[in-house]
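Record copied across here:
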Amino acid sequence: MTVSAEHRAYRIEDLAHFSGATVRTIRAYQDRGLLPKPERRGRANVYDDTHLVRLRQIADLLERGYTLASIKELLEAWDAGTGLGGVLGLVHEVDRPWSDETPARITRAELTEAFGGVPDEAAITDALELGVLETVPGTEDEFLVPSPQELAVAAELYAAGIPLSAITGHLRELRIQVEYISERFLQFTTEHVFQRYLDHPPTDAEAAEAASLVRRLRPLAQQTIDAELARAMRMMATRQVQRHLGDLAAATGPPPSAEPAQVPVPLPVETVGAVRELVGRRNVPAFIAAAAEREVRARTMDALAGLPATDGPHFSPSGD
C-alpha cells in the first residue's frame, strides 16, 4: 500500500499489524460504530492514521476496564465536537496507581523462607487469588508483588503466630469493608465535587480541571483513613486490654486482705472548679485523692487519741 510523508494508507491487514488488533476485531469495531468506515478506492478498502489512532485509543480504554458501550459513548462525544484528549487525560489520572509503592519480584524460595521455611502451595494459591501475588509469564518460580508492604505485613503477622489461613481470611473480610469505604468516599466527592463534570460530555478544559481535582483529592482518602484508623485502634485496643484485665481480676478474685471496692462520690461543681483554679485541670484528681487520704488519716488519729469526731474537714493547728 502506498505510504507518503503527508498521508498513510493501510490495507486492513496492515492496520491489524500496526495496531495489534486482529482483522476480525477491526471489522467488529466497524460494525458496532466504534471505528469509522474505510475509504473505498476501486476494489480496495483503505484505512489511514485516523483509524490507527482510534484503535489504539480503544485498546487503551479496554485495558483500563471500560466496556465497549462506554467507549462508544466517549468516541461519539468526541466525534460530535467534544475533545477526547482531556477525557483520556482524566481517565489516565484516575487509573494511575493510588499508592507510591513500587511493585517488586520475589522468588518461590524467598517466599517460602519469609513464611517459616515450609512450602505452602495452598497459601500461594490464596495469595494469587487475592492479588497479593501475581504470576510472571514464562516462569513458575518467580512472582510479582504489587504491594511489598502488604506482603511484609502478612509475614510479620505469620511470625507473630497467626496462621496463613487466618491472615487470608482476615484480608478477604477487610477488603469488603475497605471497598465499601472507598465507594462511600467516591460517592461523597462525586456528589459535591465531580457531578458538574459528569452531567454532560466534558470539554478538554473541564476534563483537565477534573483531573487536577483528582490529583488534589487523591491523598485525602488515605490521610483520612490513616487518622481515623489510628484513633479507632487506640480506643479499641485500650478497651480490649481493660476488658481482659477486668475479666482476669474477676476470675482470680480479690486477695484476702483487699480493701472494699471504691464507690464513686459526686462532688459539687463549685468545689471541683475551685480545685481546678488552685492546682490546674490535670492535677484535680490527684489533689482530691490526696485531700481525702489526709482527712481519713486525721480522723483515724482523732479516734486513737479519743478526741470527738467532727463533721467538717480536719485541719491540724500547724496547717499540716
